[in-house]
Write a structure and sequence with these properties.
hydrolase activity; elongated; Allophanate hydrolase 2 subunit 1; two-stranded antiparallel sheet; hydrolase; 75 residues; single chain; 2 helices; 20% strand; alpha+beta
Length: 75
């Protein structure tokens, strides 16, 4: 979409897309129509799931840090 003259920027989100138009007052309804059409014609992509482990420490009330506690909570 960024190769189109009327599009300034495209910002993908987790479940949305933001399109910044050069002349939004003139192009908004046409852009909405095109985006709706592209959405209906597109196929969903389902990436492989993955597990991400983030190691870390938790600080207890007494000021001591505990590795085992953070692993138990995270895992």
């Amino acid at each position: 979409m960024t190769d189109r003259e009327e599009v300034v920027e495209v910002i993908p989100g987790m479940n949305n897309i933001t399109v910044v138009l050069r002349r939004p007052q003139e192009m908004a309804w046409e852009a909405i129509d095109k985006l709706q059409r592209w959405w209906e014609e597109s196929d969903a992509l389902e990436p492989e799931s993955r597990e991400i482990s983030i190691p870390g420490y938790l600080r207890r009330r007494g000021g001591t840090r505990s590795w085992a506690t953070s692993r138990a909570i995270a895992g």
